[in-house]
Write a structure and sequence with these properties.
With 126 residues, the protein is an alpha/beta fold. 25% of the residues lie in helices and 35% in strands. The strands form two sheets. A four-stranded mixed β-sheet has the order 3-4-6-5, covered by helices on one side. The chain has a two-stranded parallel ribbon with strand order 1-2. Strand 3 (53-58), helix 4 and strand 4 form a beta-alpha-beta unit. It is globular.
């Protein structure tokens, strides 16, 4: 929703929780910018689309490997546009192995949360 308010041309909002989807739709009811709301998990959504993305924000349940699997799928299927980025939020205590040589990966800790930014290197497209 923040991306929409900042001028994103199109956004997908994906959540597997029906209550969250209801709240998202309520918050979007007065917004005319193009968006689509999907009631499924991120990996299911990614596998159902041939869309490429500039920015992917992943904030899955911390106790699952859904975020890692989504990242693997995005990278393997080259679902990012040129210079696209992935932002992945997880518990600071989760052991995360993001070994992708075609990406510059930075990690920031915010209390009990770790946020990873994966930014493709120019060689990714070659």
């Amino acid at each position: 929703i923040e991306a929409i308010s900042r001028g994103a041309k199109f956004t997908y909002l994906v959540d597997s929780n029906k209550q969250a989807i209801k709240l998202i739709n309520e918050n979007l009811k007065n917004i005319v910018e193009p968006h689509k709301v999907e009631n499924c998990d991120a990996l299911t959504f990614l596998k159902s689309t041939n869309q490429k993305f500039d920015i992917v924000l992943l904030d899955p349940p911390f106790a699952t490997d859904l975020g890692i699997k989504a990242i693997e799928y995005i990278v393997e299927n080259k679902l990012l546009n040129q210079h696209g980025i992935i932002i992945f939020e997880t518990s600071e205590t989760n052991k995360v192995d993001l070994n992708y040589p075609n990406f510059t990966i930075t990690r920031k800790k915010y209390g009990t949360v770790a946020v990873y930014k994966m930014e493709e290197n120019d060689e990714y497209r070659n």
